[in-house]
Amino acid sequence: MAAARRLKRVVASQPGFLNFKSSSESLSGRRKRVNKNKKKSWNKHSDINDVEEFLEDVRLQERTTGGLLAEKSDDSLFFLDVGQPKRAERKAEPIEGKKRKGKTPRPLRIDLILQQDSLIPAPKDVLAYQQPNAKKLRRISQKAEQLAAKGVVTRRQKRLLSRRPVTKEAKKSDTEANNNPNRDYYDIWGQEQSTVKDSAEDWYLQQTGKKRVKRPEKLSDRPSVLPAVEVIAPGGSYNPDFFSHQALLKEAHEVEVKKQKEEDKLERQLAVNKDDTATEETVIREQVEGLVEEEEEEDEEEAAHDEEDEDAEGGSSLAKKKTERQRKREKADKIKELRRLDSKRQMDHRQQLFQLRSIKASIKQQEQSTEDKQKIRKANQEAEKSQPRRLGKLKFQAQDLEVQLSDELAGSLRQLKPEGSVLKDRFKSLQKRNLIEPRERAKFKRRHKLKYVEKRAFRAIT
Amino acid sequence: MGGLQKKKYERGSVTNYITRNKARKKLRLSLPDFRRLCILKGIYPHEPKHKKKVNKGSTAPRTFYLIKDIRFLLHEPIVGKFRDYKVFVRKLKKAYGKTEWSAVERLRENKPTYKLDHIIKERYPSFIDALRDIDDALCMCFLFSTFARTGKCHVQTIQLCRRLTVEWMNYVVAARALRKVFISIKGIYYQAEVMGQLITWLVPYQFSHDHPTDVDYRVMATFTELYTTLLGFINFRLYHSLNLLYPPKLDSKAECELKEENEEDYALNSECYLEKLSALSASLARMVSSAEEEEAQLDQFPVEGEDMEKLEAREREQKEQEAQKKLFDGLKFFLNREVPRESLAFIIRCFGGEVSWDKSVCIGSTYEVTEETITHHIVDRPNASTQYINRYYIQPQWVYDCINAKIVLPVEDYFLGVTLPPHLSPFVEEKEGDYMPPEKVKIMALQRGEKPAQEQEDEEEEDEDEDEEEEEDDNDDEEEDEEEDEEESEEKNLKKMEKQRSQGKSLQVKVTPGKMKVENPERLEQEEKAEEKRLAIMMMKKKEKYLYDKIMFGKKRKIREANKLTAKRKAHDDAEKANKKKTRK
């Protein structure tokens, strides 16, 4: 308010003031009488439009020209029009162009937009420069300076100086994360000799339980003989030879065919068997079951019954008791039979002497066959070493072969579109080498069922 | 019968195994922690031979571990750290819940962490052990270093991986250890020879990640945690083996050259140095700056027989390698902005070439396009706008093919806009008699030092080459045939003479002037050898002979198949040529 009033005064003092907008408003009609004895009503009923308009005008002038137009000198407002200075301009432009090409690049459009276009400088933010307790701090620092000039050391300073320096750095390296990008390395394989010779220390560590347990030798064996990095087939080149590319395509095709076959098989097995479904005929027969008498079947059933009865009788007749005589005879027969077999065996033994050659041959054959089997088994074992093992619930599933079809191949390195993901390749390689077990991503299980509720506002519309 | 009753499943293989869940309970760890521990310590699940026995009669699929392994895990100090971490998380949660911020801060400061150094030492007792297992580590680090920093894994891990891979690449450049490169559709395969170990790794293309959903990131991150530690220690050792400073420092001279006034445009101050290192354009600082490498001559020991041959072969190989290391010496490359900068800069520097690129592409460019001494300008566009007359404009595949062929290939096939010859895999090693694509045959001819004259003649020569090979293969058989023929003809002559005699006719006696029998020593030698071989075959036992015939048959079959494939290829090429001609008309 104070500023407005002051400006009003300024206006009064300047009769030749130029307005941007001419105020054509004039008071008409009778003035309404209002009490202006209270500040509130005064504010309410006094008309300050003219003042505000005027102020707006002043602000506009200041923003656009940097001051009031009336205060400007004539030279800054007008210039003498003497036609167009053609040559000078033409010369001036190319110089500018050259400059642009050379060093200073054209500012970005976004920067131009964001630039301040008002000519009034922004007000200084006082708070940004203020310091809490500035006076006190200044006084303290002045006093400290004075004391320092005199050479006096305060008690406080003494205490600070006498305090032990905190070894914070050592602690920091202790709690430093393992993946700190600036971590330092040292020669880990270099200090072997120095540690070994100190046997006393060794004993101490062993007794205090601080010695590391020796790693079992067997752990250094690799679980698979496969190499860490399997290089892709030559057909996987970005610009492959025709035949190797075809070979790779064929391989991929075979894999795909195999998959398709399995799928088809599953589909076939799952398909509905037509023989199992009920036809009209069978349905009717089922409905009529028992209503129509069929004599033939009954006859057959009876016949089956008879046979069974006979069998049962035969079984009971076998369990008759033997007579004494029969027993003796059987025993004699048995002894006789045993003797016969024994003599036969002895005879055979004697005869074997003449069969030596054939026996030898048969033994040789047997040995040969076992050897062959051993070989095969060993080869299988070797082959198994490079196979992924079954380590968990899931079987290892090889990754899809990376293949680009003939029309996908890029003509040059620039247009190459990478196929597959190296991350997945590495992951599968780890699985293939039995370093980790194949797993599935854990499925998200909802504990409670979702409940859908319409909001009231939504229901009101529909 | 006396004695206690034997209980089932208390002896035998069941005592050697433990299920995962039991092991987890024994260690008092949660499943993720258990999994992490197993990965870090290198303990893997086992498949028992008789699952039903081990599983106490049940056939349910389970994961088994060896009980001794788990017992070994019980001694691991990291287990305690894992438990501490669990407690830490619980406390932190509580403090958050109570909004006790000072407690949160205090807890954060004392967050339990662990080191894997002792595990590395334990798992890889010697440096060579570690070097043998580095393939995985490299693949993983290169993979993680290309990840976007979008929260799939810790940003710090990505940064560490980047640092380690840059260090590794700088080492390979300094040691000139690279051997093979293969650009596949998956990524780029590199193979280097470090201290006699062949190390293969796969680098994914930049910006090619769509994160697959069926990969367990936690497991991968654990592996990476281990491998970053391993790779760091290996890098340290490797740098010291070459007398290089570790952590790597740029050569002071190179550093001055790379100093630019507007470095801030490229990277933050903290990352600037790593970026400069990763540009690979400057050499590294050595510990002893004036240590000129003296080529130590190998001691020669007198050897005999087969060892001699082996030694010679080894020497030849070594010479070849030396030559390969200096493949690009003295060549100056300039990379256009559309070619993969890092890969090309890496391999060119590995073989002694100088390389630069446009200033706006990356930090660390050493010279401009306008430099007069540039010999090769690598462009991957159909045409270049402004061409300088004293340099070759070639496609990037040339560099890769040169490395695989171990010679500087002729540039004609790789000019701009020319259809490139196929990029063959250097990881395929053909045995004798296998089918070889004609491009490979051509490269091999070049390696032997034969020069193809012109394009047209080229193809003919190819054919000749193939023919020659076939001839070589068939040589033995032919010689045998020839000798038999000669014998037969002699016999015939004799028979004729006898007939004439028996008929009582006077022989037609005629004296012809004698001819000097020209003895070709090479031919003689060959004949002798063939004769020896024939005799040896004749002297073979029946069993051996059978085996020999089998082998020969297999060889011939292989050759036949290879011939078939070459014929097919020729037919294919001819058809294509015909097509081209048609289209031209």
Automatic annotation (TrEMBL), chain A:
Source organism (scientific name): Scophthalmus maximus
Its biological purpose: May play a role in ribosome biogenesis.
Key words of the record: Nucleus, Ribosome biogenesis
Classification via InterPro entries: Nop53/GLTSCR2
Segments of skewed composition (Basic and acidic residues): 166-175, 257-288, 330-351, 370-387
Molecular-function annotations in GO: 5S rRNA binding
Subcellular location: Nucleus, Nucleolus; Nucleus, Nucleoplasm
Pfam family, one: Nop53
Gene Ontology cellular-component annotations: nucleolus; nucleoplasm
Membership in a protein family: Belongs to the NOP53 family.
Nucleus keyword on record: yes
Gene Ontology biological process terms in this record: ribosomal large subunit assembly; rRNA processing
Protein name: Ribosome biogenesis protein NOP53
Segments of skewed composition (Basic residues): 29-43, 319-329
Ranges of Acidic residues composition bias in the record: 291-313
Automatic annotation (TrEMBL), chain B:
Keyword Nucleotidyltransferase: no
Source organism superkingdom: Eukaryota
GO MF annotation list: ribonucleoprotein complex binding; RNA binding
Transmembrane segments: none
Keywords: Coiled coil, Nucleus, Ribosome biogenesis, rRNA processing
Protein family per UniProt: Belongs to the pescadillo family.
Protein name: Pescadillo homolog
Species of origin: Scophthalmus maximus
